[in-house]
Amino acid sequence: MRTFTAALVALLSIPLTSSVAVTDIQGPAWLSPLVGQTVNNVTGIVTGKSKSNGFFISGTPSKDRRVSHGLTVFTTSASILSQVNVGDLISLSGKVSEFRSSTSPDNLFATELQSPSNIVVLSSNNTVEPLILGKDRSPPTQALSGLDRGRDGWLSVPNNRSQVDVVNANLRPDRFGMDFWSSLEGQLVTVRKPVALEFENNFGEFWVHGDWPVTGKNKRGGLTITFGPNGIPDANPETVIIGSPLDGTKNPHVTMGMTFSDITGIVFQQFGFFYILPTTAPTVLSIPDPTVPPTTLRPTTKNACELTIGDYNVENFTPTSSSKATVANHIASFLASPDIMFLQEIQDNSGSKDDGTVIANVTLSNLSAAITLVDNSTSYEFVDLPGVNNQDGGQPGGNIRSAYLFRSSKVSLLPGSPVGGALDATLPIRGPDGKVSLSFNPGRIDPTNSAWNSSRKPLVVAWETTNGHRFFTINVHLTAKLDSSSTQGNSRPPVNAGVDQRTSQVETIAKFVKSLLKLDPLANVIIAGDHNEYIQTRSVFKAFDNLMFEIDEVSNVPVTERYTYVFDQNTEQLDHIWVSAAIAARGTKVEHIHVNNWAPTLAQRTSDHDPSVARVHVC
Ligand SMILES: *[C@@H]1O[C@H](CO)[C@@H](O)[C@H](O)[C@H]1NC(C)=O
Ligand SMILES: *[C@@H]1O[C@H](CO)[C@@H](O)[C@H](O)[C@H]1NC(C)=O
Ligand SMILES: *[C@@H]1O[C@H](CO)[C@@H](O)[C@H](O)[C@H]1NC(C)=O
Ligand SMILES: *[C@@H]1O[C@H](CO)[C@@H](O)[C@H](O)[C@H]1NC(C)=O
Ligand SMILES: *[C@@H]1O[C@H](CO)[C@@H](O)[C@H](O)[C@H]1NC(C)=O
Ligand SMILES: *[C@@H]1O[C@H](CO)[C@@H](O)[C@H](O)[C@H]1NC(C)=O
Ligand SMILES: *[C@@H]1O[C@H](CO)[C@@H](O)[C@H](O)[C@H]1NC(C)=O
């Protein structure tokens, strides 16, 4: 076995006329300065070999940290692949290419040597020492790209103001995560003490951080989206995906917080993300405790003013959902059957069958019955408001909606107003008694406003406690992020699909709340539901500033524990509960119950969202 230095000596002893170094091909910027050119006598040691998509070489390192000395050599030719082995020092010719792993313009280009030829094995059994991440070099921990300009950093609007490949800036690996990973493109690296940040994806790939400085670390082991020290949202760029092992072994099933043996592999860029392609699958070293503690916020019969509020997106729930017993158990056993449950994604009685059915009373009564099976002391009543068939988004035919379950022993709908129709806008009004009520109860907020086009309309209810105090709730499910672009993609800031519509939706809700608080500044208002947006996207929630107060903030929940969802590298909060000033002033509590995102395996997760429970006082 020769060392890398010995190999370099061997390399220097060969006459190299018009040879091109790997570092010349990589250059200090995003795109190769030699793109399109055929290069000869490129020399390097083979560091990895895929089953059918080529191999990787390591050339002489540069002192310039922007410049990678690793390179992908792409070939599907079995005969070419059979000519090289890991440890071979080779020289070869090929065409420098910038390859996009799908036609999506959102994917970055990867620098490759294509159509390899003239392969000469100069020596074998050389070793290349991997770069030890966290020791030799560590990724930056806050920003992804210098192009993510704006007050909200990577979450700033408008999106996609510039593209990485068009600007083609020189890399700044000390400042920006994408630049960091790109500066190591094709190189052999080791991740010590890897920790999984999420379940694996459909291809068995999973996000990790290793033994290096990280920010946003929650108690479970994931990395939560937070604000950085400069007040700009932190994108957790210190993370990378572990791809399919090069030797054909299979990665284990993973869950957030699981730890593994050290991973050595090649830094690679594909499908809009930076990967490490491990030489072999890691082994699992530790598994987080699967026990999910139930909420400590239990309903009370002693104080009519004290309410517990649950919030849960139950993901396309139908009368025949296989998740019914589990969801019922979550609500009864883990959320302690809150006084009022805010539910989202309740489908109509016929589920996703597109048969014109819109009412969901069977879905809701079935769920209520299933809860009573678990907790015979609870017999929930329900309220929802059917929309117009197929006008509220979601799965076609499913007519998902927001709905409430409630304990009639604790709260009831304020009487005296007609029930709203699908297209009726309910408005705050002052009743003959001088108190505020709603023109329709339950009712929808401005349902014909284009902000609610193809989206779930907020369900407003005016309630009364058993001692005669009233309060208002708004159950929301804002438009989804579907078709957003990759956080590590070409478009900067990344495309946050639906962001303009979500902003308008928050504005219409804020307008409603303002008109209510105008009639009674001390009104008790609670908004809860799936907002499909992080609090760090401040532009979306601007209309709530000084109007509604997020309960996590009011309750002083540690910022890293504010999460209900896990996506790619981030734990994040999409589900929010907001309270008006009167409620905030009385003090609140909230707990996020991780029944889904702490599941031992992806298959055991019931919904993609975790539910939350809050305690509020409405009088
Ligand atoms: C490449 O190297 C070979 C020896 O391996 C040498 O014969 C040839 O002249 C070199 N070609 C160029 C273009 O430098
Ligand atoms: C490389 O090493 C292996 C054992 O580690 C040995 O069998 C083989 O002969 C060596 N090959 C060369 C070309 O030195
Ligand atoms: C970003 O903008 C560019 C240039 O207009 C466009 O080609 C690209 O499709 C956009 N990306 C996304 C994800 O919308
Ligand atoms: C659902 O509503 C329909 C129509 O109002 C009614 O006939 C039916 O009995 C209800 N079913 C349940 C379970 O509430
Ligand atoms: C749902 O409720 C209906 C009416 O209450 C009942 O007939 C039916 O058996 C229930 N379905 C399931 C799957 O529990
Ligand atoms: C609820 O279940 C408990 C124990 O299973 C039983 O003792 C009690 O009588 C039940 N209560 C009702 C109202 O059915
Ligand atoms: C509503 O959404 C549909 C499909 O998403 C679109 O075709 C239509 O133009 C939108 N209408 C308005 C008023 O935004």
UniProtKB/TrEMBL annotation:
Gene3D superfamilies: Endonuclease/exonuclease/phosphatase (3.60.10.10). InterPro entries: Endo/exonu/phosph_ase_sf, Endo/exonuclease/phosphatase. The keyword Signal applies. Keywords: Signal. Residues 1-19 form the signal peptide. GO terms for molecular function: catalytic activity. Residues 312-609 form the Endonuclease/exonuclease/phosphatase domain. This is DNase I-like protein.
